[in-house]
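Human: I wish I could look at a protein chain and see how it folds. This is the protein in question:
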Amino acid sequence: MKHIALITLLLSLAFTGCEKQLSEDIDPITTATALENSDNILSKYIEKLDSEFTTQDVRIKILCRDYPREYKKNYMPNLLKLSPGEYSEVALLADMDLVLDHYKEKDAIQC
C-alpha cells in the first residue's frame, strides 16, 4: 500500500513538473519580433513628441495613455522574457517614468 501511494505521488509530481516546464518555454524569435515592433511604436511616439507640428491634444494622448500602455503591455514584458536577469520591472518602470516626466515637464502636461 505504501508503494502504491509513493508511486502515485512520484507520478503526479513528474506530470506537474513537465506541465510547468512547457508553459514557461518561450519562443525567442516571436518574443524578439514583438519587442522590436513595440520598440518601433514607442520610437514613433517619441518622434511625435519631439516634433514641433504635433498638437497639444496628441501629446496629451501619447503621454497619458498610448506610451504607458504600449510600454507596460508589450515592451516591458517582452524585454523581461528575453533578458530575465538583466532588467527588473521596477527599473523599467522607473525608466519609463523618467521619459514621460521629461516630456510632461517640457510640454507642461499633467495627466
The chain has four helices and no strands. The chain has a mean pLDDT of 85. Helices lie at 2-24, 28-50, 56-82, 89-107. Residues 56-82 form the longest helix (27 residues).
